[in-house]
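Dear Dr. L.,

I hope this message finds you well. Following up on our conversation about the binding site, I have prepared a predicted three-dimensional model of the protein together with zinc ion. For your records, I am including the exact sequence and ligand specification that went into the calculation, followed by the structure tokens. Please feel free to forward this to your student if that is useful.
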Amino acid sequence: MNIYQRTGFSGLLCICTLTLLAFSACSPVKKEEKSMKDIHSYSEPDKIIVRHIRLDLDVDFDTQTLAGRATLEVNNIAGVDTLILDSRDLTIERVTLGEDQRETGFVLGGEQPFLGQPLRIAVDRGVRTVNIDYRTSPDAAALQWLAPEQTAGKKHPFLFTQSQAVLARTWVPCQDSPGVRFTFDARIRVPTGLMAVMGAENSQEHSSDGVYTFTMPQPIPSYLLALAVGDLGFRPLGERTGVYAEPSVLEKAAYEFADTEKMLEAAEQLYGPYRWGRYDIIVLPPSFPFGGMENPRLTFATPTILAGDRSLVSLIAHELAHSWSGNLVTNATWNDFWLNEGFTTYFENRIMEAVYGREFATMLAALGLQDLQRTIGQMGETSRDSHLFLDLAGRDPDEGMTDVAYEKGHFFLRMLEKHFGRERWDAFLSAYFDHFAFKSMTTAGFLDWLDEKLLQQNPDLREDLRIDAWVYGPGLPENCPQPASDALRQVLAQAERWNAGAQASELETSGWTTQHWLVFLRSLQDDRLSSERMLDLDRAFGFSDTGNSEILSAWLAHAIRHKYVPAWPALQDFLTRQGRRKFLKPLYQGLAQTPEGKEFALKIYQHARAGYHPISAETIDAILGL
Ligand code: BES
Ligand code: ZN
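The resulting structure of the complex is given below.
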């Protein structure tokens, strides 16, 4: 469906002014404008733009709603008579203009899947302030309301948001496009005893009356709007860093993230000052559908990275790196998603190298390249989705977001680093983050900057480096760098021995880290994995009982494929106790391959679904054909 074919005013819900509002139908977007326009937003920020949002919201766990007011400060650049906002599943109660709150008309347009409805508000040329009284729906896709049993402490409910990619509109009426930035402040009322935190300036203390206030002085795009409410405590990690978590998780989290301040310093050494004040992390309950989310000043993280040995903290390096690539210089549209994730995956690896050494970082890169090769293999060498510059028209952006943006983007930048040398390349990147700070960036805009600063308009170099093939072509160009890791070679040698028939107990595995085990598990040959041989591995290495979520998920994928029944209780447990989509998706997909597997999956899902976030549940529904 062409999203520009809007349905007009079929949903005329409320007319609050005395004068009946006459809206003209939207003119179709001209072809040449199309690439500039964010196809996932109804808003028209080139005509009228939101600069600041003030939220005043009550958090009601009984009705599972947020209710209150969003006050938008706008700049009516073109002097238009309509402000179009994105909204989805919101109930708009009243809209007024100005400090004196003059009633104005509004209308919710036709609804489209995942885009929601345009909220059209009648404004005057000189409008500065728009006040929207509204409430969210219990089904708001950005919000997960957790019952006490779904938390670590089991006593208090919990709420968290996830706005990326196009879900902010389910809890705040806004111009929900990464190309629009605004500052905000907020007043959030929660039941006494609970604590509210936002991706903003946070107090580290509980408030006695349940009212929390926040300010966000740096302008952000809507997908970085974030709120969490629960029984939370805080522990400092360093001068500018700290962690929030439920009290019973706090100590483990503080241990795991002990290197955060070092990472922050390493990141600044690489690409310039951290511009957001503090960098804190909140560990969410296990239903959080992602590994991490780079909400400014406050990374949201899954508890599945609390391995107990700090071995999965590259995720923190990743979310921290977004403070430059993504939060500071932001992809203009979701088609430019690789500018966020590819740069961040590259930067993440540089932080890991700086803090933990080259060998470890190379191993992580090698694992990333394996992921990419697998993804491209699955989608097909010629798939349009294997381009860096995506075409997400007519699709939920969430669907087209794959390892390609992350790892093909990462290796593209590695290739450029290799060609220009670290010194020039790092200077180039620092200047890029500085020059475009707090701005959005298109793919073409980045390539122009690259051309100007490094290629120096040399068409041969552009061709030699295969820039266009990387960005606008499928698959992996042949000048993709290959990370050479000694550790990886050692692991491969042991995997070879096992594939050739050696007993697991004979292998030399002392000193192996999580990443060694992951490479090992990936190198086991399918035709060698009989149930008996899997039992040999399990006895020697205890994979079914591991507390490391990455190792467990890789092991369980084998267990499903090779019908290793002894691991099925662990599988059921893993699919029930956490809701991280990256882990759920391949396991349910594996189970869905066979009739018995599917039956087992449906049995588990019947109970587990209620505990999953809507984002994960939607993905699993599709896999199981529900
Ligand atoms: N920004 C992403 C998460 C995201 C992407 C949410 C697209 C919604 C839509 C975050 O930075 C991320 O990439 N998280 C990864 C972890 C990372 C270490 C690769 C994840 O959650 O798996
Ligand atoms: Zn990311």
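In brief: The chain has three domains: 18-38+319-472, 49-311, 490-624.

With kind regards,
A. P.
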